[in-house]
UniProtKB/TrEMBL annotation:
GO terms for biological process: glycine biosynthetic process from serine; tetrahydrofolate interconversion; tetrahydrofolate metabolic process. One of its GO terms (molecular function) is glycine hydroxymethyltransferase activity. Belongs to the SHMT family. InterPro entries: PyrdxlP-dep_Trfase, PyrdxlP-dep_Trfase_major, PyrdxlP-dep_Trfase_small, Ser_HO-MeTrfase, Ser_HO-MeTrfase-like, SHMT-like_dom. This is glycine hydroxymethyltransferase. One of its GO terms (cellular component) is mitochondrion. It comes from Paramecium tetraurelia. CDD domains: SHMT. It comes from the Eukaryota.
Amino acid sequence: MQLYTSVYRFSRLVPRQRLTLNQADPTIFGLIQEEIKRQRESINLIPSENHSSKAVLEALGSVMSTKYAEGYPGARYYGGTQVYDKVELLCQQRALNAFNLNSNEWGVNVQMLSGAPANFAIYTGLLAPKDRILSLDLPHGGHLSHGYQTETKKVSAVSSYFEVMPYRLNEETELIDYEQMEVLAKAFRPKLIVAGASAYARIIDFQAIRKICDSVKAYLLADISHTAGMMAAEQLPSPFPYADVVMTTTHKSMRGPRGSLIFYRVGQKEVDKNGKPINYDLKSKIDQAVFPGLQGGPHFHTITSIAVALEEAKTPEFKSYQMSVLLNSKKLADELLKRNFSLVSGGTDNHLVLVNLKPKSIDGARVESILQAVNISVNKNTVPKDKSALVPNGLRMGSVPMTSRGVNQDEFAQIADFIDRGVAIAQKVKGEAGPKVQDFKDWLAKNGDQHPDIQKLKKDVVSFSSQFPVPGLD
Ligand SMILES: *Cc1c(COP(=O)(O)O)cnc(C)c1O
C-alpha cells in the first residue's frame, strides 16, 4: 500500500511549482514591495479606492480561482462545483443581509466582474437595443458606464447600443436638477433612469426619481457604487425602497475585492389598470444577461472574497468605520472652506468633496500632478460649466481609504493643510513652467526633485502617512 506522506506527494510536483513568489519571480515580487511602500507612504484621497482586510485578501488569493463553474448554484455546466455552490449561495445570502433585504422581495447576482460591465448587463437584461436611458451627465458627476457621449463621439459603448439622454446639475445650486429631469423624462420617455454618480457630494433623492420613473413607466436603476458601504451601515438613505435594480461595486466603500453586486426585484406583485396583479420578477432577465449573455466562468476567488467582505459589513466595526468616513469627509470639507477653497454645492453629505479650483486661478490637472509628486493621490475632475475634461477645474477627494487606515478628524485637518500647501506651490510654479499642462508636468519631472517647497511637503506627507497602518498589510 502506498503511504501518502508529504514527501511522497511533493515528489510528484516539479520543484518550481512549490516556490514562493519571492523565490520564483523576484521581479514581480519586487514590484509588489514597491507598491506596498507607495501605499504606506502616500495619502490616498481617491474616493473610489479602499483597503481590504487580510481575510478578504486571503480569500482572493486562494485556490477558489482555479475552477470553472459556468451557470448558477444547482445548475452548472461543470462538475465538481459542490463547494462553489455553497459559497455562491452564502455570498448571495450575505449580500441581502448586508442591506437588510428580504429574499421574498430581492434577489442578487454576484457574478459580474466589475461595475461598468454590471451596468451593461442590466441595460441588456431590461432593455432592447436602442431603448432609451436617462442618466447623469459625466461632466456633472455621472459615470462613463451611464452612457457618456460628447457632441462628436459616442465615448461609452452604452451610448452606441442605447439612446442616452443626460440630465445635469442646476448650475446655480450645483445639485441634481430634478425638475429638469422630469421635463426631460416626459419628452424623452426613457425606459430606464439611472440614479447614481461618481462625483456628487450630496444625497440623492431616490424617492423623487421613483416618481419620475412612475410617470413615464421607466425602470429605476440605483448605481450606489461609491456610497454602498455608508448605505449598508444605515448612514445614508437607502435606494432599496424605490429602485427596481440596485448595482454596487464591492471594492469602494464596501472594502471588498474588485467586483460587483446586482440586486433585482423578485416576485413583486404590481397591479395593472384593471386591478389585476402582474408579476415582474427581474431574476431571469438579470441572471441571463450576466450568464450566458455576457460572461463565461465566474471568478470564484472574487465571489468568495466578496462573501468575506459582506460578513465584515455586518460588524459594529464596519458601522463605526462608515460613520467615521462621513465625519472625516465633513471635516475635510470644513477645513478646505476655512482655507478659502470653493466646493461644488458648497459642502458634502457623503464621503467625498469636489473642489472648484477656478477661484484659485489654477486647474485640477496641475494640482493633481503636484500632489502626486508629494505622495498625495487625488483625481482631477470636471465641475459644472467646465469645457475640458483634460484640464478641468475640479479636484475630487474623499475620506474612504485614509479612514480605513485609522485617520481621525484632527488628522484630516492636517491633510487639508497639505493640500493647501500643494495648491500654493502649483500657483507659484505655474508661470515659470510654461503655458500648457504638459509644460507643467515636464517642469515637474525635471525640477520636482530639487524644489525645496516640493521636497519639504513630500517629506511631511511621507512622515504623516507612515504613522498609519495599512489594512491587509499590517
Ligand atoms: C466605479 C463606478 C462604476 C464602475 O465600476 P468599475 O468596477 O470601475 O467597472 C460604475 N458606476 C459608478 C457610479 C461608479 O462609481
